Amino acid sequence: MKSYDLIVIGGGPAGVFAAIWAKTCHPQLSVLILEKSPNLLRKVSLSGGGRCNLTNELLNPKTAGDFYPRGSQELIGALTRWSSTHTMEWFESKGVRLKTEDGGRVFPVTNQSQTIVNCLLTELDRLEIKTCLNQDIQSISTKNDWFELNIKEKDPLFCKKLLLATGSSKDGYRWAEQFGHRITAPVPSLFTFTVSSFALKELSGTSVNPVELRIDESAKAYSGALMIAHFGFSGPAVLKLSAFYARYLHEKNYQADLIVNWLPSYTEKQICKILCDLKLDAPQQHLLALNPFLFSKSFWKTLLSGQSDKTLRNLSLKEIRALSARLHADRYRINGNTAHKEEFVTCGGIDRREINFKNMESKKKSNLFFVGEAIDIDGITGGFNLQNGWTTGYIAGSNFTET
User: Fold this and answer.
1) In the beta sheet, which residues pair with residue 370?
2) In angstroms, rounded to a whole number, what is the distance separating the alpha carbons of residues 253 and 259?
3) Most CB atoms within 10 A, among 100, 153, 166, 402?
4) 344 with 316: CB under 8 angstroms?
5) For the domain 2-187+348-398, what is the CATH superfamily, name and number?
6) What share of the chain is helix, strand, coil (3-state, %, to 5)?
């Protein structure tokens, strides 16, 4: 009988980090990582466009709600125990030099995800943590306080403690349900918006920063950079909005009105006054040439629509007010979404209320643990989802009691 003190199912960042800390805190433990795919840490490799946005230095436990649409309350305490600062210090202590870019995003100086992957793999080797790839787990059962894992075409494995770091895998959810856990059905998060009859299609590649975005008439707006694409809208502001409205938009079948405030620093009245003052000061000028808000010329011309060739003298007050209203609340009809396939994030997972966040142990089944995106926790783009993995992985691994 092959047995281990701890088996981790899932070789992503959360599972690997949990295994590292379990072995660090209890060197005598026998630890095994089982991964279904041919490689460990695939999500780390893909993060940040292959550069690995491993965390965000702006993350503060008290402001977790700004970064985690689901799970922020549970992470407030967890992040005090393993914060983004702890993450940076740990990697730097292993010889990884880091840098911070716009929005607090942290990357390795090498700009290569493999730097982070290699650091973690080196730790696995140093701690003599065994890993097995291409593992097809058929079933999990319990027998005399042991977990029994039946693996296709291989002898079963046994362990005293089992940790699921299975992300949005259906298998992980099925095993959690088997032990009495409720699953919130996963739906996409962090996606772009497709727009029907897209009037800005010819401006594909144009970025506007900052803008404010709202869904329908909801009061909450989200700001950031917006990228115009041939299919609709992308960019940080869109991804943030999509995360907070992931379930709402899914329920609406991704059919909703997107309201864009192109000038969030101004009220609609202020915009109107600026335009009216320009009409008084330079009536013979064309509004396209004056460009008072310093948009790109092509973008400004598109917003002006048929008014670009008019002099200010010939612009009526009604037309000025309509332009002001558009600049303040431009409306587009969302009619679909486009997910980031390689860095796919879901909203949903194992019910947080059924997990003890002091050690990430199941409240339903002793010696069963959950970490990372298997839990109904997800963050916005910018390193927050990986930080969830480091935090929950550390808490689980460092709080295992010896067998």
Assistant:
1) 164
2) 18
3) 166
4) no
5) FAD/NAD(P)-binding domain (3.50.50.60)
6) 40, 25, 35
Helix axes 317-328, 268-281, angle to 10 degrees: 140
Q: Tokens for 250, please give them.
A: 């899914």
What DSSP letter does each residue of 205-263 carry, written as one string?
A: T-EEEEEEEEETT-S--EEEEEEE-SSEEESHHHHHHHHHTHHHHHHTTT-EEEEEES-
At 190 the three-state DSSP class reads coil
Nearest to 165 by CA among 272, 289, 14, 304: 14
Domain ranges in the chain are 2-187+348-398, 191-339
- Could you tell me which of 341, 342, 343, 338 has the C-alpha nearest to residue 386? 343
Backbone angles phi, psi at 115, to 5 degrees: -60, -45
Can you tell me the distance from the alpha carbon of 90 to that of 394, in angstroms, rounded to the nearest whole number? 11
Cα radius of gyration rounded to whole Å, the chain: 25
- pLDDT at residue number 402: 57
Nearest Cα to Cα of residue 167 among 312, 388, 373, 385: 373
* Distances, alpha carbon 267 to alpha carbons 111, 221, 326, in Å: 40, 14, 12
Residues 372-382: b if buried by 16+ CB within 10 A, e if exposed: bbbbbbbbbbb
Cβ neighbourhood burial of 92 (10 Å; 0-12, 13-18, 19+): exposed
